[in-house]
Amino acid sequence: MFERRIFSRTAAAAVVVSLAGLAPAKAEDTVKVGLILPMTGGQASTGKQIENAIKLYMQQNGDTVAGKKIEIIVKDDAAIPDKTKTAAQELIVNDKVNFIGGFGVTPAALAAAPLATQAKIPEVVMAAGTSIITERSPYIVRTSFTLAQSSTIIGDWAVKNGIKKVATLTSDYAPGNDALNFFKEHFTAGGGQVVEEVKTPLANPDFAPFLQRMKDAKPDAIFVFVPAGQGGNFMKQYAERGLDKAGIKVIGPGDVTDDDLLNNMGDAVLGTVTAHIYSAAHPSQMNKDFVAAYKKAFGNRPGFMAVSGYDGIHLIYEALKKTNGDTDGTKLVEAMKGQKWESPRGPISIDPETRDIIQNVYIRKVEKVDGELYNVEFQTFEAVKDLGKTKK
Amino acid sequence: MTSILTNLFDGVAYGMLLFVLACGLAVTLGLMNFVNLAHGAFAMAGGYVCMLLVNQHGWPFFAALPLAFVSSAAIGIVLERTLYRHLYTRSHLDQVLFTIGLTFMSVAAVDYIQGSSRVFINLPAALQGQFDLFGVGIGRYRLMIIVICGLLTIGLQMVLAKTRFGSRLRAAVDDPRAASGLGINVPQVFAFTFAFGCGLAGLGGALSAEILGLDPYFPLKFMIYFLIVVTVGGSSSITGPFLASLLLGIGDVAGKYYVPKMGPFVIYTMMIVILIWRPNGLFGRTAAR
Question: Where is each Leucine-binding protein domain found (chain A) (predicted)?
Answer without folding.
Answer: 30-367
